[in-house]
Amino acid sequence: MKIKVTTLYVDDQDKALRFYTEVLGFARKTDVSQGPYRWLTVTSPEEPDGTELQLALNDNPAAKTYQQAIFQQGQPAAMFYTDDIKGDYERIKAGGAEFTMPPTGVTGSTIAMLNDTCGNLIQLTQLARY
What is the DSSP letter of 16? Predict the structure, then answer.
């Protein structure tokens, strides 16, 4: 088995697409609509055939409640790994992202947290090299 797609709920798909491509640097993979439904995914340019992140419109009351609760608790909705957290932090911050936590050393890694402007906190992680 493989993980091919994972879902992240967003309050605005167009805004999310701009943020995830222009600010974070992901690439649009799939963008198709049928009536009011839109299937929108992005992927890492480092792994264009890797796992896709679906940016799903948060029009489901249960999902919206979950999204708001984890945001209010300061929990990340997604975690992305990087080999250069300080460089990515500077690049993403220069792109206008609001970080709620700058790169911070924790056991076994360095993490940073940012607001994706679409209702989610995102954690960047760089594993420690021993």
Answer: H
Q: What's the token pair of residue 4?
A: 């091919």
Element (H, E) at 71: helix 61-72
The tally of CA atoms less than 13 A away on the side-chain side of residue 29 is 21
- Where do the domains of the chain lie, and which CATH numbers do they carry? 5-127 (3.10.180.10)
Alpha carbons 101 and 98: distance in angstroms, whole number? 9
Angle at 116 between CA 112 and CA 120, to 5 degrees: 90
- Its pTM stands at 0.93
The 3-state DSSP class for residue 83 equals coil
For residue 130, name the pLDDT band (cuts at 50, 70, 90): low
pLDDT tens per residue, range 76-85:
999 999 999 9
One-letter amino acid at 66 equals: Y
Contact 17, 42 (CB under 8 A): yes
How far is residue 64's CA from residue 53's CA, in Å, rounded to a whole number? 18
Determine phi and psi for 125, rounding to 5 degrees: -135, 135
